[in-house]
Amino acid sequence: MRKKLLSYLFLLLVVISIFSLIIKFGTQPIYSLLGHQTKAGLKITSVPEAGVFINQESVGKTPYLNGDLLAGEYQVRLESGNMSWQGSVKLNNGTETILNRELAESLASSSGEVLHLYEGKGVVITSVPTGASVEINGKIKGVTPLSVVDLPTGEHLFLLKHPEYLPRTVRATLLDKLLLNIHVDLAISEEETVNIPVPTATIQQKVLVTQTPTGFLRVRESPSVLGKEITRVKPGDELILLEEKQGWSKVRLKDETEGYVSSDYIEKK
């Protein structure tokens, strides 16, 4: 009788302990103790269609959906022709993470968002760049990073704007007892895209020193017979022509020395 009573008391203590854990932490610790893990989901869409790589492994094309993943952080890469995007996404137990991307040839011109759910309430919105204005259901709420706690459950429309960037709209649903985290990457406006000038190759005009009465040609500091002599060149020497003015030519020698010579004793190649 005593052994049965002790067994009942032990069982009662176990039940009370399990119930206490559920109240405090939810069911996940119990699942872990029993060797069971709640799965997480990942949904990926893109424009245009793209190949999907998760942790460097090809898993198919967009739209991609997998509801049988373990919670944790994953490296995701999307590839479509010469357009690509890569980043990390965090998956949480019992929830689905959503990744949407609009691909472009440059990262600055691409855009998208990642949505995750956590325990909590309301919505947290972040963006790149920071400081984007946020409208929720047509009402201005502030700038990113932004936290709104008093938002009711249900579907909402989020609009993010930033000077010099294209606005982006996100439609998402808030669930009871869950915090929605939205991270948005804005695409730079085409009008603000910096056009990097492409240097053009300058064709250098080369000249040859012709025969002179003295057997050499003086290179002077200024275009005048009174100009100080810098050096001398010989007939057949090749020079680079920089400028021509009133019987004188500014030239560059092979040793990068620059000066003036008489135009009468050079000829263009």
From TrEMBL:
Descriptive protein name: SH3b domain-containing protein
Limits of the SH3b domain: 204-269
Domain of life: Bacteria
Pfam families: PEGA, SH3_3
UniProt xrefs under PROSITE patterns: SH3B (PS51781)
InterPro entries, A to Z: PEGA (IPR013229), SH3-like_bac-type (IPR003646)
